[in-house]
Amino acid sequence: MPEVGLFIPCYVDQSYPQVGLAAVRLLQRHGVKLHYPRDQTCCGQPMANSGCDEETRPLAERFLRIFGRYEHVVAPSGSCVSMVRNHYARFLEGKPGFDHLRRNTFELCEYLVDVLGVERAGGRFPHRVGLHQSCHGLRELRLAQGSERVVAPFDKVRQLLASLDGITLVDLTRQDECCGFGGTFAVNEEAVSCMMGRDRIADHERAGAEVITGTDASCLMHLEGLIRRDRRPVKVMHVAELLAGAEG
């Protein structure tokens, strides 16, 4: 079994530590030998998205030094994994170990399905669940096919969820629409961001979802904030929490 370096993104570390703990339980359940480097920091995505390349570069280099020694790197966040795989090249191209890091960094569900070959997550979750497809995971990591692509249907996250006993995965009107978070977009364009988020919540509610789940704590934080503000009766859970907490 490969040794895995566990990367815990900033949002998870600071606001949703239970997601990181759930990811640990889930990976250990499937026999993974985990390492958690205590000197890890932000991957640099917020700075890169704002055009601050010189502030991003030392974080990318640090990430390579810390995680480049592991056979695989896994994170419960599609956007952070996409940062490493799709956007680190301009900072790290040609550096020793970067090609290995880029090829072997995985989102949590992607790792379970593509590397470990997990077909059934195991457990029971007798609720109606709506799956939010985060933009980075969908369009940059290809965790699912995306409605704009004419390819055979696939959905790695939904595949794991569907294997839980008792679960009902609801069908949304727009399966892969953005929630409106977009990092600093939610700050700079607050009104538009909130309208987009409320559209997504309404779609889940129309479908009868009791729980909204997804792979990115940042998107779920945005949706949960709007749900709490509007006092909507919908619960939000990261997919790691849902899978790890499913009744055995």
UniProtKB/TrEMBL annotation:
<protein>
    <submittedName>
        <fullName>Fe-S oxidoreductase</fullName>
    </submittedName>
</protein>
<feature type="domain" description="Cysteine-rich">
    <location>
        <begin position="129"/>
        <end position="223"/>
    </location>
</feature>
<dbReference type="InterPro" id="IPR004017">
    <property type="entry name" value="Cys_rich_dom"/>
</dbReference>
<dbReference type="Pfam" id="PF02754">
    <property type="entry name" value="CCG"/>
</dbReference>
<feature type="domain" description="Cysteine-rich">
    <location>
        <begin position="4"/>
        <end position="84"/>
    </location>
</feature>
